[in-house]
Amino acid sequence: MGPLTRDGALIERGARARPAPPDGAMVHPHGRALPLRVGTRGSPLALWQTRDFIALITRFCPVLRHFEAFQEEVIATTGDLVQDRPLAEIGGKGLFAKEIHEALLDRRVDFAVHSLKDLETELPPGIVLACTLKREDNRDALVLGPDCAAATEEDPWACLPRGALVGSASVRRQAQLLHARPDLRVEPIRGNVQTRLAQVASGRFGSSLLALAGLRRLGLEEKAGVVIGTDAMLPAACQGIVGVTCRDDDVELHELLSAIQDHESRAVATAERALLGALDGSCRTPVGGHARRLPDGRLMVEGLIARADGTFLLRRSLTGLVDEAAELGRELGRSLWRDAPADVFG
Ligand SMILES: NCc1[nH]cc(CCC(=O)O)c1CC(=O)O
Hints:
D-Maltodextrin-Binding Protein, domain 2; Double Stranded RNA Binding Domain; Porphobilinogen_deaminase_C_sf
């Protein structure tokens, strides 16, 4: 195995997993059968993230570079299959991961790559979050249609005309937008990033809110008309972070995966997932979370809970030691939970 230090700037882009060679399983020095089967959703963003991860792990484990070491298994999830309704209506948690967890537990795949913000805080027994990658920018961005004005620095919403229709299926984005701009209308927009962009370009929606991370990974950053600062819109917990799951009894793979983990990202993910867990809302509950390291090394966690129509919004922060990331997130979550009206929990 090669050196396990990580240099985010050196990640190879666009590496592709290939099918296993016809002459059967290969064995790598730890006695493990190759190829390793990687579970992934099939959206362009999911595939990009999976291939980026394969490039990364290959970099740190050169032995995997010399073989056709990975095999992608594309898995359709409930979140992918239901395109005609907002996910909040379907209910339940982990709509983008259930089928992927099942594939892991059935040993149809060895590990899986996820957008961590779509992964439920309590994983099924037998599955662990083995690794989190360096966080991409976690801010949201406005994609602007032809009727929008030029963006200004001081007011990110000023470019939206009065009464404009904004496409978003996220109650978190909707609540914060309506809180700032009660004149706007928000209607659900679904589908992958490209589909949403097309619906703004066609005029069906005046604008849309998307994660900057997704646009950037897909090479579509120029579509971000305005990048919304976290003061104006608190991102979703773990937005911009890719996480990798495996079976907890797969000790050697777990070790390999956790060796390439980004520790900073793990700390903020731990705090943000604990915050989310403590709030215990339904997927109709608008919740935001953002943790970051301060220059003095401590961890600051910000959290937000709101009513979907924007008529209630509570935002607080808590600062503490990085080693207590989970406790910090949980305590902040509990404090928000105590002071939010019952109806926001859906
Ligand atoms: N729910 C879909 C989803 N899951 C992760 C991302 C963006 C990438 C990331 O957060 O890492 C997106 C698209 C979006 O919210 O615009």
